[in-house]
# Entry
Amino acid sequence: MAETRPTPAPVSRALAQTGVHLATWRRLQQLTSGQVADRAGISRATLQRLESGAGASLENTLRVARALGVMDLLVASLDPYSSDVGRLRADQELPQRVRRPKGRTDAAG
# Structure
């Protein structure tokens, strides 16, 4: 059985802030939670969990963002080539796989 780890504080804060932002988008558009949930194809309870910062799957988050018309903004915010590092390395060929150097162990790996 997989070990469940506690959610790191920065991730909890990001979940809460994302929920606040999505709820604000919904209110700016004068939509009820029922309307957005219906448009997103999810339950109202799932939308409420997302807006309260309790989290939801990435798919459901994207469904809500799409229903609110902000999915493209969300996806674009993750574009690595819009970052300083991405722009500096834009002309470099990316490896197909990144492997851990021999002899090195990571806590996440």
